[in-house]
Design a protein that fits this description.
The protein is mainly beta and about 290 residues long. It has one helix and 14 strands. It has a single domain, classed as Outer membrane phospholipase (ompla), Chain C (Beta Barrel). The radius of gyration is 22 Å and the shape is globular.
């Protein structure tokens, strides 16, 4: 098994921003919790079963103009949720099943030189809290799989106000994919690290349509030029463009109550030749820390 160290761009970004404090941080951090519960008495007829579903989300944006020529921005998205289902005959509760799981942390450093485009370096970390896909040994794996994307190129701010923004960037990227899995019923694990590199395009849109209604969108396109395991892919599916398109509409209906609609369209031909679509509609308690 090949080993890899922490991506170099992580160290570069940390060193670049250390010791600089030109302007205060622009901070936005909110968290929400949604709970749905159904229960039926023993005398209830019709075959319904009780269930409990809950989802926790946290979204944060931290940005600072570290110096006149360097801007740093961190965007973090965390989600986790489970569903508990009751057997309709025995009324026993089954083990909880994961319904939502996401770790997505992106750091972008822009060199604001006053040019038509701004050079940038970026590091994105994608993973999940719990991998519960093993059905043989029933062993959970944590922070698996993990993907590190390091990129550098040119960015352009097409539109920006205090509450709205349209930013696009294009650059070369290298990705490290680390995957673990369970071998057999004894629970032993094995792992593999693959690498690929290519061209990445990322477009971020943020719109504040009213004091209570907000819309955000993120479109990521990635075209690989090389893949360390290309010999294991005779159909060259790794050459297809990967698509990740996320959209979120949130509306505040009360001080601490928000309704949100989240959609995600994924296309990765190595995983499935079809596109994958996810939709989450939720109403829950939201608290804005910043």
């Amino acid at each position: 098994m090949r080993k890899t160290s922490i991506p170099l761009s992580a160290i570069i970004l940390i060193v670049s921003v250390s010791g600089l404090n030109a302007e205060p941080w622009k901070k936005s951090l909110d968290t929400d919790f949604t709970l749905t519960q159904n229960a039926y008495s023993d005398s209830w007829t019709g075959g319904e079963a009780g269930n409990i579903s809950w989802v926790w989300n946290a979204n944060g944006v931290f940005e600072k103009q570290m110096s006149p020529k360097f801007n740093f921005k961190n965007t973090s998205k965390l989600s986790f949720g489970q569903t508990h289902i009751q057997d309709k005959d025995t009324k026993d509760w089954a083990s909880p099943q994961k319904s939502t799981d996401l770790i997505d942390i992106e750091n972008v450093g822009k060199f604001t030189m006053g040019w038509v485009v701004d050079p940038y370096v970026a590091l994105r970390i994608e993973s999940q809290f719990v991998d519960a896909s093993d059905t043989i040994a029933n062993k959970n794996l944590y922070l698996n799989p993990m993907r590190f994307t390091e990129s550098a190129g040119a960015s352009r701010q097409f539109y920006k106000t205090e509450k709205n923004e349209l930013l696009s960037r294009l650059g070369l990227a290298i990705r490290q994919n680390m995957v673990k899995w369970v071998e057999g019923q004894d629970g032993d694990t094995d792992s593999e690290i693959t690498n690929d590199g290519g061209l990445e395009s990322v477009t971020d849109l943020k719109l504040t349509m009213s004091e209570t209604l907000n819309f955000t969108s993120k479109l990521t396109l990635y075209k690989a030029f090389f893949f360390s395991k290309s010999d294991d892919d005779p159909e060259d599916n790794w050459k297809a463009v990967d698509v990740n398109w996320e959209n979120r509409v949130s509306a505040s209906v009360a001080k601490y109550v928000t309704v949100s609609l989240y959609t995600q369209l994924l296309y990765d031909k190595e995983i499935d030749v079809r596109g994958r679509f996810k939709q989450t509609l939720a109403m829950g308690i939201t608290y804005k820390l910043y």
